[in-house]
Amino acid sequence: MIVESPAKAKTIEKFLGSDYHVMSSYGHIRDLKEKEFGIDLEHDYKPEYIIPEDKKKLVQDLKKAAKSAEMVWLASDEDREGEAIAWHLYETLGLKKDNSKRIAFHEITKQAIFNAIENPRNININLVDAQQARRILDRIVGFELSPVLWRKIKPALSAGRVQSVAVRLIVDREREIQNFKTESSFRVIATFVVKDKKGNMVEMPAELSVRFKTAKEATEFLENCKNADFIIENITTKPSKRTPAPPFTTSTLQQEASRKLGYSVSQTMRLAQRLYESGQITYMRTDSVNLSSLAIGTAKEEIINNIGEKYWKARNFQTKTKGAQEAHEAIRPTYINKHKAEGTAQEQRLYELIWKRTIASQMADAELEKTTATIGISNSDKKFTATGEVLKFDGFLKVYMESTDDESEDSDSRMLPPMAEGDALDMKQIVAQERFSQHPARYTEATLVKKMEELGIGRPATYAQIITVIQNRQYVERGDRDGEQRKSQIISLKSGKITSQEKTEIVGSEKAKLLPTDIGIVVNDFLMEFFPNIMSYDFTANVEKQFDLVAEGKEEWQKTIDKFYKKFHPNVEDTMKNSAKMKGERKLGVDPKTGKPIVVKIGRFGPIAQLGDTNDDDKPAFASLHKNQSIETITLEEALDLFKLPREAGEYENKVMTIAVGRFGPYIRHDGKFYSIPKEFDPMTITAEEAQGIINAKRTQAENNKIKTFDEDADMQILNGRFGPYIAYKGKNYKIPKGTEPATISYEDAKKIIEAEPEKPARKGFRKGKTTKK
Asked: Which of 88, 174, 358, 621 is the most exposed place for a label (fewest CB within 10 A)?
């Protein structure tokens, strides 16, 4: 039996007897040619597959094992990628239909595996074609667009079909925020004093049904309320209910794990993969919310036995996602009666989340009672409204409640005191507080997945990969945004007096959000201008629908590719010939001292400011933008400040300390060495004493990290690094073998470790002295 991963193989091996040998293919055993186009355009877009160098020995072992086996079971995952892996194995190993079978299961249990063996099937070539179509289309887009970016923007850039659209979402949101105009209004909350059931005086807040645009309007209203009477005009009580969320799909698991556990999308998928491969949850790449009848039955037993029969309610959820595919069941525990998982603490927390969500989906509604009291004002037609909510039966909330991305600032989950229509209320105070409209929130990894799913961009198997790629390419970064100081006015009426005060607060700070980089914005703008079709949300979603038709056998994949390529390729050639270079240049103004123009643009190592013109006799001066600055938002004054660096900050140990900014941020240069300046210091204002403190702190840290030095060679040291001890020698680092005590390593031993270290291969896609061929 051949599966994709050794972890999955190890789990399956436990269930099978000595008649079976379980081997792993370690993912795909062949792929398109790496450094070439890999697609034969002359012969109907035929893919040119090769076995990578690191897989050749594995393929030999698999061939040998397959020849001696009575039957080869191809047991890769049941999605399109898994089907393609099975097909590549079938083709490469030279298997025949009479000695090989395709089996699939969405959970790794003994029953599921033997059930699959008893019900084998042929490889679904439609699913394979859908996977091939995606792979070929993505290769065409990446291979043809990337050289255009190298020529027109800067070298070493790359573009991808779905990734570029994901970057566009983030860039569009950033511009939406930049163009957002904040509006203020006054929200009015009155506090009334009433008796509760026990006769104690309690406070009851109520909100005015309208907001005022100006402080003058709010003040006039409060003046009016000085002599007003407040009467209960109407009380309504309505029952309401809350229904549990469906079991997890890939995207909802990624979103909820982000909100509740703080996991990144890729981290969630890594942990879920481990739980699946160890047989603890069902297949984790799915957009189905369906549960098997066995799972529903087990959940029923679990709820009735442990919580009570009134808490159980059988539910069958329907998948609403358009083009839903992949596995045919939601993500759930393989054994629902198992409340805790084996594994790391992170795996256990994710399992607990999946278990709770699965159980809650088969539980009764939560029953609530919502009361609304309308309060009239004797000398005004405006009304105050007090709301309260009482939980009558907790239902599924006893186990689990789904989180949301936009938690409301107020909650109705309080009980109103007993009142009757016509009751007069005693007003304690009325407060009109200035509130400001909020710009749209930047995307987190989880909300980006949600948006892509809504637009039909990508599929469950691709979300995590897309988010990882756009960050690795440095088009997007995950970071924080500091809030800004804002003043607001609070006008209060209390004891017949109106007072006004000003409140200062920090608003708009955001954590762990996806932020576009300058190079990401420039690439996005270039692709939007010259390849609007590729960047269209509708086009990307329609391509996914075309792949779905291929998977259903309703369309030939070659026709889908041909239709695209005949429009796309001429567009590439025209852009390469006729478009100008794009540097993302933005003119800021003129330097008042020299009269020279100042522009910001993309340079070889990132965003830079340029003082002067390249056509002038004097060479222009350049300065790197700080990490928190952007080409789109930097001001002329901020750019002028950049040219104040490098600057001297005094002397230390009879050597000058120079403050400068490089591609990795601000630093101090002293005695031929470089010291990074921590972000709490401003390079423009850092003093000599502060610079000395940074140098001394770095020296102390380096000394503490030093495990051993050698008299035989001053360049050789054993240091303690972030990932453990290592040997540092002449600018290179060498890993110390496991089980070796670093402090006991002799000079001769260290030399042997250095000599035994293999030379690292060149980066993929680059060969010394040659350009990468198309």
From this structure: 621
283 part of the active site: yes
Residues 6+ apart with CB under 8 A from 248: 256, 330, 331, 332, 354, 357, 358
The pLDDT tens digits of the residues spanning 279-316 come to 999 999 888 899 988 899 999 999 999 999 999 999 98
For residue 187, give the nearest of 498, 442, 433, 521 by alpha carbon: 433
* pLDDT reading at 323 higher than 60: no
User: 45, 263, 276, 283: which is the annotated catalytic residue?
Assistant: 283
Cβ count within 10 A of residue 49: 16
Spatial distance between the Cα atoms of 33 and 50, rounded to a whole number of angstroms: 6
Q: Do residues 185 and 428 touch, judged by C-beta distance below 8 A?
A: no
CA 594 to chain centre: 45
Distance in angstroms (rounded) separating the CA atoms of residues 351 and 357:
10
Q: Is 126 helix (H, G, I), strand (E, B) or coil?
A: helix
Q: Are 170 and 476 in contact (CB under 8 A)?
A: yes
Q: How far apart are CA 415 and CA 390, in angstroms?
A: 6
Distance CA 443, CA 447 (A): 6
Question: Contacts for 549-558 with beta carbons within 8 Å, 24 or more apart?
Answer: 550/126, 550/129, 550/130, 550/133, 551/80, 551/126, 551/127, 551/129, 551/130, 551/325, 552/126, 553/126, 556/129, 557/129, 557/130, 557/132, 557/133, 557/136, 558/44, 558/45
- 3-state SS, 365-411, equals CEEEEEEEEEEEECCEEEEEEEEEEEEEECHHHHCCCCCCCCCCCCC
Q: Is 13 helix (H, G, I), strand (E, B) or coil?
A: helix
Segment 750-761, tens digit of pLDDT: 888 888 876 444
Contact 423, 232 (CB under 8 A): yes
Q: What pLDDT is recorded for position 412?
A: 53
Residue located via tokens 């070659």: 558
- Kindly report the pTM of this predicted structure: 0.80
Return phi, psi of residue 585, to 5°: -75, 140
Q: CA-CA distance, 146 to 173, in Å (whole number)? A: 25
Convert the pLDDT of each residue in 334-361 to its tens digit: 999 999 999 999 999 999 999 999 999 9
Two structure tokens written together for 89: 């194995």
